[in-house]
Design goal:
single chain, alpha/beta, binds iron/sulfur cluster, 6 strands, about 40% helix, 4-stranded parallel sheet
């Protein structure tokens, strides 16, 4: 199977349609040329509606963290966006539900195997960190604080959601120490 066929199969996937409150709508951005991979969580309701990944306040903050314009961020030859679950999983009492557990086992390894030009993987939140950094500490705070252990190939980030404003205030080292280095690295990769 070619990579193009694989991506077409993902976009047509209905594996867990019976439990998706709004039905399947895989939201991803992928091209074999991508040099930065963003491994996120799952689309929210707004992104489910638009079909555009990170088309929300979380995306605005993530682009700022990476130092990328919207045009650069949505250039699939530069950035691949593969959340742990490709479809909106619904919401519960404390926000969106976790990514559907069927998704990553069905698709992730084969998609990642095709992304041979990736130089930096940006790993957002606990579910992506459990997959991409299996030996990391359990808590997101500890994992992000230990970011230099996987640098420069992999960088763990907290979720850029406005829900994490308190986390950002409590961890000022994230903005002063990590973000300048991350922006510099992304600029280097973008420049080729
Ligand atoms: S979440 Fe993943 S496994 Fe479930 S229907 Fe969407 S693409 Fe398929």
């Amino acid at each position: 199977m070619t990579f193009v066929d694989l991506v077409a199969d993902v976009r047509a996937c209905t594996i867990c349609s019976a439990v998706l409150p709004l039905g399947p709508r895989p939201v991803l951005q992928v091209d074999r040329a991508a040099r930065v991979l963003i491994a996120g969580q799952a689309p929210g309701r707004k992104v489910h509606g638009s079909g555009v990944p990170f088309d929300d306040p979380s995306g605005d903050r993530l682009r700022d963290w990476l130092g990328l314009t919207p045009a650069e961020f949505y250039d699939p030859a530069l950035v691949a966006i593969l959340p742990m679950g490709f479809c909106y999983p619904g919401s519960g009492g404390s926000g969106d539900l976790p990514p559907r557990p069927e998704c990553a086992p069905a698709w992730r390894e084969r998609l990642l195997a095709g992304l041979t030009n990736v130089q930096l993987t940006v790993v957002i939140g606990q579910y992506a960190q459990a997959w991409h950094l299996p030996n990391a500490p359990k808590s997101v705070t500890e994992t992000v604080a230990a970011w230099e252990q996987s640098w420069p190939e992999v960088v763990p980030l907290p979720h850029p959601s406005p829900r994490n404003n308190l986390w950002l205030r409590r961890n000022p080292w994230f903005a002063t120490d990590l973000l300048p280095v991350l922006r510099h690295r992304v600029a280097e990769i973008r420049a080729g």
